[in-house]
Amino acid sequence: MIRYAYKASLIGAAQQFELTEEGLSWRFAGRTGLWPYADITAIRLSYRPVSMQAKRFRADVTNRDGRRLSIISTSWQTAALMAPQSEAYRAFVVGLHARLAASGSTARLTAGLGRFAYGAALAAIALFALAMVGLLLRALLIGEWPGALFLVGFAAMFAWYVGGFLTRNLPRSYTFADIPPALLP
Question: Which of 29, 32, 47, 178 has its CA 20 to 30 A from that of 128?
Answer without folding.
Answer: 47
